């Protein structure tokens, strides 16, 4: 389906935004007290991006990814990253068929709509790099042959930032592939009490039924692509990324890919509000989750404990807003 006018885009948003809200409500039935993280997860999904969930054990990282996968009636595969995991265990391998006397490609778990990579930093850098091509180009090359991945395609990876023994930190190229990084944090007391009541006897994930199909998500993505971004907002995004590159507290600023991801995520954020146009508030709300994990602080900033999230927040506060 091809959209030609802004009016058609607005009509499509009116039809499909309720589908996105149904997905969010389904996830909220499993994850208590985290509406902000759930909305950001939906924004990354609609922006055709990938999500990195980084937090301490036991706060629901894997549960959030499973709930999203269960809410969408599409193909879902999980990969448990371990030190002995090989790249072919992810992408697939060519196996020899003795009856036909030919090599046949056996697809790996990456050939799915939602791919959950649990504890991604426990695999070796060689295995981590197997995701680079599929996350950026939506394809996999094995033995010189390229195979396209089905749409929609989203990688949700989790990692524990506390227990670092036996882990391999994600390199800059890998982190730059992720559209956003979120941390769930501990739930408030009321939400934790509700979790004890609902999860104490049976897991709500077992009762979660799909509320959307892969086709619905594909249509949502088409609608998000048509959300209007004015030249002033585009310049604001460029100025924001440029400020990170010139910051004395950072030795590595935001890449052009980060600028593009921020634009796409802002479109999805606006669509979740029912708007077919992006405003600076959308960009400001997403600047931290989209940019911070890509930035590298200087040695002085590390000594002074200036986190990239704080640097991005100061840049957003000081950068002038675009004028009409």
Task: Put the structure in a nutshell.
The chain has 324 residues and is α/β, with parallel strands linked by helices. The relative contact order is 0.16.
Helix-strand layout with pairing:
Elements: H1 6-28, H2 35-46, E1 51-54, H3 61-71, E2 72-73, E3 76-80, H4 88-91, E4 92-97, E5 102-107, E6 114-118, H5 125-128, H6 130-137, E7 139-142, E8 145-148, E9 154-159, H7 172-175, E10 180-182, H8 189-199, H9 204-207, E11 212-213, H10 214-225, H11 231-246, E12 250-252, H12 256-272, H13 280-291, E13 296-297, H14 299-303, H15 308-318
Parallel strand pairs: 1-9, 1-10, 2-11, 3-6, 6-9
Antiparallel strand pairs: 4-5, 7-8, 12-13
Helix pairs in contact: 1-2, 1-3, 1-10, 2-12, 10-12, 11-12, 11-13, 12-13, 13-15
Overall 3D geometry?
globular
DSSP helix fraction: 40-55%
User: What class would the helix/strand composition place it in?
Assistant: alpha/beta
Q: Strand tally, please?
A: 13
**Roughly how many Å is the radius of gyration?**
20 Å
> Total number of helical segments?
15
Overall pLDDT metric = 85
* Arrangement of strands in the largest sheet: 3-6-9-1-10
* C-alpha end-to-end distance: 33 Å
**CATH fold title of the domain at 228-324:** Helicase, Ruva Protein, domain 3
User: SSE string, helix = H, strand = E?
Assistant: HHEHEEHEEEHHEEEHEHHEHHEHHEHH
CATH classification class of the domain at 228-324: Mainly Alpha
């Amino acid at each position: 389906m091809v959209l030609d006018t802004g009016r058609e885009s607005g009509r499509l948003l009116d039809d499909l935004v309720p589908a996105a809200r149904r997905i969010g409500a389904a996830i909220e039935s499993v994850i208590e007290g985290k509406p902000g993280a759930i909305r950001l997860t939906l924004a990354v999904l609609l922006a055709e991006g990938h999500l990195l969930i980084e937090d301490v054990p036991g706060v629901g990282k894997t549960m959030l990814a499973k709930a999203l996968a269960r809410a969408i009636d599409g193909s879902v595969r999980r990969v448990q990253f371990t030190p002995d995991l090989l790249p072919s265990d992810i992408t697939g391998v060519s196996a020899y068929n003795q009856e036909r006397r030919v090599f046949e490609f056996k697809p790996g778990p990456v050939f799915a709509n939602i791919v959950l990579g649990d504890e991604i930093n426990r695999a070796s850098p060689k295995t981590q790099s197997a995701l680079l091509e599929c996350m950026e180009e939506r394809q996999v090359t094995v033995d010189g042959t390229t195979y396209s991945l089905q749409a929609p395609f989203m990688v949700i990876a989790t990692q524990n930032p506390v227990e670092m023994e036996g882990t391999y930190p994600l390199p800059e190229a890998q982190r730059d592939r992720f559209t956003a990084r979120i941390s769930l944090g501990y739930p408030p007391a009321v939400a934790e009490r509700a979790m004890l009541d609902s999860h104490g006897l049976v897991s709500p994930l077992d009762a979660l039924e799909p509320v959307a199909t892969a086709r619905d998500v594909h249509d949502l993505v088409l609608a998000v692509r048509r959300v209007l971004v004015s030249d002033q907002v585009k310049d604001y995004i460029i100025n924001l990324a440029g400020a990170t590159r010139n910051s004395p507290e950072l030795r590595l600023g935001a890449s052009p890919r980060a600028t593009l991801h921020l634009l796409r995520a802002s479109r999805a954020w606006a669509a979740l509000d029912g708007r077919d146009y992006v405003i600076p508030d959308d960009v400001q709300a997403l600047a931290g989750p989209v940019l911070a994990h890509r930035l590298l602080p200087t040695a002085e900033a590390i000594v002074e404990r200036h986190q990239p999230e704080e640097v991005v927040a100061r840049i957003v506060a000081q950068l002038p807003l675009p004028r009409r």
